[in-house]
Amino acid sequence: MLPEPQKCSVPFRVIVVGTERVPRQSITIGMQCSNQLYLGLGGLSVAISLARRGHQVVVLESTVELLAIGAGVALPPLTRRWFESEGVLDLDDPTCVSLDGTEIARWDTDDLVVRTTANPVGKLNAIHHGDLQLALLSRAQQLENIEIRFGARAVDINIEDNVVLVATGDRVVGDLIIAADGVKSTIKHKICPPEACQAESTGEAAYRLTIPRQLLENDDDLLSLVQCSWSHRWDGPGSHVVVYPVRNHQLLNVVLIHPDDGEGKESWTTVTEKHHVVTAFRAWNSRIHKLIDLAPAEVPNFRLFLYPPSPVWTKGSTILLGDACHAMLPYLGQGVAQAVEDTIAITTVLSIIENKAQLPLATRAYELSRKERVDRIQAASYQARQHLHLKDEKAQKARDMQRMAAAESQQNSDVVKMQHAYWIWDAAEAARNALSDLMPTADANGHQ
After folding, report:
1. CB-based burial label for 234 (10 Å; 0-12, 13-18, 19+)
2. What average pLDDT does the segment 239-252 reach?
3. What residues have CB less than 8 Å from 83, skipping those under 6 apart?
4. For the segment 292-329, what is each residue's pLDDT rounded down to a tens digit?
5. Alpha-helical runs (H) found in 228-314
6. CA of 438: how far to CAs of 315, 349, 359, 433, in Å?
7. Hey, which bits of 133-194 come out as E strands?
8. 73: Cβ–Cβ under 8 A, 6 or more apart, which residues?
């Protein structure tokens, strides 16, 4: 039986603003088409964590029709353990594949460069976005003190009165408002200056698809990719490809990062005709060609945008969480992990304070414990693309030689080393320390 966490001293009514609605055109991702579910990961995660500790939580979700969309997402070892500790994932849950490491091969010849193994902290895990959504929703629906309101699109917020205005005209009041409404956050501009809400194109985009195992079974070269518990990566000039199994090895997640013209707006709905994918990777090895051959006629194409670090995370009793605050580029696989760390931090400080007057201290400690780390990871994620996308052939060979030398000494290098560097972090301890530092400077009512 799952152990119960310690209850909070002061229960709050918390309003979680979930993900912005996804237009219907975007429900087909690669080979998967469903009409079951689309919900935000960060919003449901924080709702579950707070509810289990005694808070009353209302989740406002834009979605009316439940949509199951998405592709693979990465869970570092501590992130997976957190989902298990909250009863979201079962121990050894087959939907979540533990990866033994990464095989890196030459982009043009498919010759193996190096195999990097998991570090002592644990293994990277891969799960389908839709499977994690379903697990989160199922867990949230088990908790009586979580109310999920579908079709409740937040259109405005009154920070002074702690009120969220919903498109239906309803006004939802709480003690604390958590904006977990994603990169297109409705609330962020109420907290941050305009320049912090403007995205800049990276000049890159990602073709994404998932391929069912049965389509791979006639080709041993491709079948091995979904059968084994390894991710595979090919780093080429201005591009890279990564594949790994999800859903108990029944789906192969495929991501092809490529140069982008930079035109157009950030969108979930962008698709491109298959022949553009073929052209972009024409010079690559035959295994990449065979994967692309299995793609649908139209392939989702996600433009990658860079957001500046949020200068502030809180205002009044409203806080930002997850992508609404610190959207991550995909190069280090830290998007879900950082939303979970946000969740751990805010849950920790709300469990410590002893009266409602100390809520401003809790939200301030939340920001202080998280901002420097997240800013550093955002910068590192952008830097990682330089290692992956070297255009000069001599530079590529020198990088690969460094990778092989590191492997011979049983070490990891460049991007893998950067990934592992961010796996060890105690978000709860950091939050406790930040709150402790603030407490001595506050009066009995929590004012500084």
Report:
1. buried
2. 97
3. 75, 89, 132, 135, 340
4. 999 999 999 988 988 889 999 999 999 999 999 999 99
5. 274-280, 286-293
6. 17, 11, 12, 9
7. 146-150, 154-158, 163-166, 171-173, 176-179
8. 41, 126, 127, 128, 129, 132, 333, 335, 336
Tokens matching residue 49: 């964590």
Closest CA to 335 of 373, 384, 300, 381: 381
Phi, psi of 106 (to 5 degrees): -65, 140
Report the C-alpha gap between 301 and 207 in whole angstroms. 5
Q: Residue 57: beta bridge partners? A: 14, 146
Annotation marks residue 24 as catalytic:
no
301: which strand partners? Answer: 207
Backbone Cα Rg of the chain:
22
Distance between the two ends of the chain, CA-based, in angstroms? 42
- Taking only the tens place, the pLDDT of each residue in 354-404 is 999 999 999 999 999 999 999 999 999 988 888 899 999 999 999 999 889
What are 249's two structure tokens? Answer: 């090895």
Relative to beta strand 112-117, strand 101-106 is antiparallel
CB within 8 A of 298, min separation 6: which ones? 271, 272, 273, 274
Residue 2's pLDDT band, with cuts at 50, 70 and 90, is confident
Enclosing H/E stretch for 323? helix 323-326
Which among 80, 153, 208, 385 is annotated as catalytic? 208
Task: State the pLDDT at residue 198.
Answer: 87
Tokens 């495929």 -> residue: 254
Determine contact, residues 137/168, Cβ cutoff 8 Å: no
pLDDT of amino acid 54: 97
Query: For residue 119, what are the β-bridge partners?
Result: 122
Instruction: Tell me the C-alpha distance between 436 and 339, whole Å.
Output: 23
Task: Return the bridge partners of 65, or none.
Answer: none
Q: Which of 41, 120, 137 is nearest to 343 (CA)?
A: 41
pTM: predicted TM-score of the whole model, two decimal places: 0.92
Token pair for residue 401? 């030689």
What structural domains and CATH numbers belong to the chain?
13-96+123-198+310-388+417-441 (3.50.50.60)
Distance CA 132, CA 95 (A): 9
State the Cα–Cα distance between residues 214 and 230, nearest whole angstrom.
19
Pairing of strands 72-75, 154-158: unpaired
Give residue 191's identity as a one-letter amino acid code.
I
Q: Which helix (H) or strand (E) holds 115?
A: strand 112-117
Q: What is the dihedral of CA 75, 79, 80, 81, to 10 degrees?
A: 160
